[in-house]
Amino acid sequence: MPFLKKFLLVTMVILVVFSVCTSVFASSDVVEPVKKAANVSWWVWPLSLFVLTFVLGIVAVLGGVGGGVLFVPIVGGFFPFHLDFVRGSGLLVALAGALAAGPGLLKKGMADLRLALPVGLIASACAVVGAMIGLALPTNVVQISLGVTILGIVIIIIMAKKSEFPEVKEADALSTALRITGVYHEVSTGQQINWKIHRTLKGFLLFIVIGVMAGMFGLGAGWANVPTLNLLMGAPLKVAVSSSKFLLSITDTSAAWIYINNGAVLPMIVVPSIIGIMLGSMVGVKILAKTKPSAVRYVVITMLLFAGLRALLKGLNVWK
Question: Is residue 9 part of a domain?
């Protein structure tokens, strides 16, 4: 099996890289604060991040999110790292997951370039502004805002009735001019699905807000990409999920550079997290082709609800 051979090869390389990185981490100045904060061996946290992000990588692909929307509130709430480092890592994690999953989704014909590129350009520019705002705000303000945002996302997901194949009677003028339309093969039913979108201008305007919030909280933008592409613009659910995952590779790159330039990237967090998310994303692509993304909906809701409450209470100093 080609995939199994690739998986084993990548795993062997990763183990070597991880061994080298851990030797660096062991002598790093960041180890002592972590050990004091959690009173456990320093290596527990990179290992825990690897396991967590591997699972998040699978869930992220199925849900069409970048992984950052789950990574930031969970790691920021339950790991002994400063939130600025977690947000910077969250964008890199979302970016890595998107780069790992993107080629496979394009090859399978589920992600669409004409749909992803325009909204990706808009969100990418706005994410830079959001990253600057996020780094300028006090940590507790960001924690509270993050908690409220995550809980708002949970409400949107619960109330939204996702449609696998939204009815679009007629494509609007803007989507027609940009030739945003396509065909993909639905494996679960064996059908060829012809799709088009509408309300394109409203969708583009909404992606301005999505970009700012993605950069500000380091969440990536998948949490809002899918509802916007699917419910507002009328793209089929699998096309929305796949295109969302692909366009994160555009959106998160710009915001991530702001965090890197400000020194808000810690190798102890980033290295195991990127390894885990990329491996998980490759597995998630295989699963996505045969399953419905809505199957993971309740898992995402539960994780976000718990993480959102944790971030909010931590920002209010109720739960330290």
Answer: no
Does residue 320 register a pLDDT over 70? Answer: no
Averaged pLDDT for residues 196-225? 82
Kindly give the residue spans of alpha helices, DSSP state H, lying in the chain. Answer: 2-26, 31-38, 44-63, 68-78, 83-107, 113-136, 139-159, 173-177, 200-217, 222-227, 237-261, 267-288, 297-315
Whether 316 has a pLDDT exceeding 90, the answer reads no
Q: Is the pTM of this model over 0.70?
A: no
- Domain-located, residue 263: yes
**Which residues have CB under 8 Å from 300's CB, separation 6+?**
59, 63, 65, 70, 157
Is the pLDDT confidence value at 182 over 90?
A: no
Distance from C-alpha of 72 to C-alpha of 96, rounded to nearest angstrom: 15
The helix-helix angle for 68-78 and 44-63 (nearest 10°) equals 150
Q: HSE-up of 242 (CA within 13 Å, CB side)?
A: 28
Residues spanned by the domain of 305: 45-315
Containing H/E element for 266? Answer: none
- Reported as half-sphere exposure (CB side, CA atoms, 13 A), residue 46 has a value of 24
Instruction: Please report which residue ranges of 27-112 form alpha helices under DSSP H.
Output: 31-38, 44-63, 68-78, 83-107
173's tokens: 């003028």
- Residue 308 falls inside a structural domain: yes
Question: pLDDT per residue over 246-271, tens digit each?
Answer: 777 777 777 778 888 888 788 888 88
The reported pLDDT for the residue numbered 50 is 92
CB distance 220 to 68 below 8 Å: yes
Q: What is the pLDDT confidence band of residue 103, given thresholds at 50, 70 and 90?
A: confident
Contacts of 286 (CB under 8 A, 6+ apart): 3
Residue 32 belongs to a domain? no
Name the burial class of residue 115, with classes exposed (0-12), middle (13-18) and buried (19+) by CB atoms within 10 angstroms of its CB: buried
